[in-house]
Amino acid sequence: MKIDQLLKIMPNARNRAALFIDPLNAAMAEFDIDTPARQSSFLAQIGHESGQLLYVRELASGAAYEGRADLGNSQPGDGVRFKGRGLIQITGRANYVACGIALGLDLLARPELLEQPVNACRSAAWFWKTRGLNELADTGDQVRVTRRVNGGTNGLADRLALYAVADRVLA
Q1: What does the DSSP 8-state code read for residue 74?
Q2: Range of the domain at 96
Q3: Are 48 and 125 in a shared domain?
Q4: In sequence order, what are the residues at sequence separation of 6 or more whose Cβ sits closer than 8 angstroms to the Cβ of residue 34?
Q5: In the chain, which residues have pLDDT < 70?
Q6: Active site residue 49
Q7: Count of beta carbons in the 10 Å neighbourhood of residue 20
Q8: Are both 125 and 164 inside the same structural domain?
Q9: Does the CA dihedral 38-41-47-50 come out positive or negative?
C-alpha cells in the first residue's frame, strides 16, 4: 500500500499517515494480511478503532476494566494500566501478556510501548491474525469481523464506510 492510498482510506490521518505507512505495511506482511480483502477489512477496523490513526491509547481512563477477570485484570490498577492501546486497542493484562510474548516486548513493565507506531501496528496485526480475522475477512462478512474485533457492532456504520473506500482503493 502506498501513502496516497492510505490517505484516501483515512483522510483524517493527515500527517500521521507518514508515521504509520511503513509500520503498517511491515505488520500486514508479517501477519499475512496480504490480499486486498484482508487489507481492506483490517484497515477499516483499525481506522475506526484509532480514529483514523489519531489515537493509539484509549481516551477513557480504563477504570471500567478494573477487576475484569475476563481481561485478566487481577491486580489493583490493572484497568487503568492495561487500557486499550495500539491501533486495535489491546485491552487487559492477559492480552498485554500474550501480545508481549508474541512481539518480544515487556508490556507488563512498559504498556506504553504499544503507543509507538511500529508496536501499535504489530499489536493490531498480531491480534488480527490470532483471532482468525484473516479467514473471516476472506468471507467478506464485515459484521462478523466487527463483532470479533469489538465484541459487538459499535461503530459499524463507520467501519463499513471505511471498508467500502478501502475496498475500492485497494482493488
Answers
A1: -
A2: 63-115
A3: yes
A4: 28
A5: none
A6: yes
A7: 23
A8: yes
A9: negative
| Residues 44, 86 share a domain | no
Local structure of 90: helix, strand or coil:
strand
Number of independent structural domains in the chain = 2
Same domain membership, residue 49 and residue 125:
yes
Cell numbers given for 96:
498485554
List 49, 58, 115, 135, catalytic entry: 49
Phi, psi at 49, each rounded to 5°: -60, -30
Give the domain-ending residue among 99, 115, 131.
Answer: 115
Distance (Å, rounded) from C-alpha 94 to C-alpha 82? 9
Instruction: Please tell me whether residues 129 and 161 are part of one structural domain.
Output: yes
Looking at the DSSP assignment, which residues form a beta bridge with residue 85? 57, 90
Q: Indicate the length of the chain as a whole number.
A: 171
Residue range 41-68, pLDDT digits in tens: 999 999 999 999 999 999 999 999 999 9
CA distance 47 to 68: 26
Max Cα–Cα distance, the chain, nearest Å: 48
The three-state secondary structure class of 85 is strand
